[in-house]
Amino acid sequence: MMKKNKILKKAGILIVVAIALCIFPFVASTYLVDVAFFFGIYALLGLSLNIVLGEVGLFDLGHAAFYAVGAYTTAILNTRLGIPIFVLLPVSGLTAAGFAWLVCSPVIHLRGDYLCIVTIGLGEIVRIALLNDPGGLTGGPNGVFGIDRPTLGGPLVIDTSIGFYFLIWIVVGLSIFGLVRLQNSRIGRAWNCIREDEVAAEATGINVRSLKLLCFILGAGLAGLAGNIYASKMMCVSPESFTFMDSCMYFCIVLLGGMGSIPGAVIGAAAIGLFPEIFRSLAKYRMLFFGAAMVAMMYFRPAGLWPRKRGGSGVK
Amino acid sequence: MLTFVQQLINGLTIGSFYALIALGYSLVYGVMKLINFAHGDLFTLGCYIGYTLLVWVSAFLTSLFGIWGCLAVGMIVSAIGVGGAGILMERVAYRPIYPAGRLPAVVSALGVSIFLENFIMVVWGPRYLAYRSSFIPTAYWQIGSFRITILQVVILVLSFLLMGLLYYIIEKTTFGAAIRASSFDRDTAALMGIDINKIIFFIFSVGPALGGATGVMVGMYYRQISFTMGWVYGLRAFTATIIGGIGNIPGAMIGGIILGILEMLGAGYISAAWKDVFVFIVLILVLIFRPTGLIGEKKAEKV
After folding, report:
1. Cα Rg for chain B, rounded, in angstroms?
2. Residue B234 belongs to some domain of the structure
3. How far off is chain B from A19, nearest CA to CA, in Å?
4. Domain that holds residue B227
5. Mean pLDDT confidence for B188-214
6. Sign of torsion, CA A101 A104 A107 A110?
7. Which of A156, A291, B108, B187 is most buried, with most CB under 10 Å away?
């Protein structure tokens, strides 16, 4: 009986949150709706990195590369070939995932900090490649502009802040649903097992290599989706949105929220994405406080804002 | 051949910068197992302290010690200042967080890095600053058809002296043995009577101090400094650390020099715009074939 009550309570909270999210854009100013959109993008990126960093414990400080691949896939295919944005949504995800498979396969055996520097390297290679405009495709430092808005067929075009707000949060919602299911699946448990002890995981028959690769592929795919939506919202993409600093921010989203915690990734995205907006009045001191706040956060809540509860096993 | 020798000299100079910064990463990583992401920004702080001294009080200093003395004072003050900042950083941002584990410490390090970068921006302003050229010796030797500046020679000699000194301390003295012991196993080392706090003090003062001194050298060599340069140098130096094998002092030196030479050869023979890509591809290739760097970590993975 207790369990049923708990589920009902959870469902109740979810419905209230969903209704609040639906009403929000109609009562808030356009500025706030835009802030909420970017919060959604950060949340999606946080969720995608959470798979790699949170679930499997692999240090990925080059996640912006996958985001960039998704955004540029959309930008280039849309402006060159005129393929609609919604068709490109899965294409961008798959391209980013394929890219992750291609570049991570040879280095997936590296441990800890060595993998970390390789992902940093990949991030930088992608950024510099975009800057150098290979084959005239990426437009160099200016990037690609003139990207279409997403159309739902006919006159239904998403071109307002409210439209994009719903687009990103529907994608975030679906991702959260999928990720929660994944977390409790055989794959999710195997991932956590690898994070806790790789050698023990291998000894129990978990295929460590392919599961590690899978987490990169899935994480990159989600980041690619975020890239697609970002590109169509901004209508232009340029390499400066995909720097090492950005990768660090996604890294902090996951750790501020709590490793492997799905609500944590969303909360972390709020902390990282909204902080600079809320404290705009501090002007040039803003990032100074941001840095200090990160240190303070780790002092007061080292496990993150919403740490993952370990169901049943009693392992801490 | 001409380009090769010239780029080799330039690469060696830049490589010694990377090596000196990389030592800071490696010292801290060895004992704390923490990537000190703020190290690049400590290096920038060194650039700016040196800049302030050389621009504001250089007339006074030059009248006392001459041009070389003035530069030396700049480097020493910068090293002391940055060393102090390193200790302060460890006390404020790392020590309280370290018991919580490695990952919170990484976020804290990133936080310190953002803080320092913006601190420098607030204090010195966001614009590029330039070291005054009248205080930088510009003489050079023309050997055959390539040239080597006196500044390059001084930088090379000085860096190798500093690296040699550090190598001597780490490998040959009792205190160095204590550092190596603590990087092998901190808890056991503490049980054997090694004062870990003393060692932490040493690594967080000497590592950043080397970075601070390097900052002044980089300022003299390139003249132009900006508050964001810490990311670039930090990233390169960290790459150098990994190429050599992280936590390994000779590895960091060798890694730095290899990286500098590769970068310059890449810039000379391939393309300046793609040189970083070249460097990272070499890094990835090194790691594919030697997963723990060229020299490698000395200990086996414990199960």
Report:
1. 19
2. yes
3. 34
4. 2-289
5. 93
6. negative
7. B108
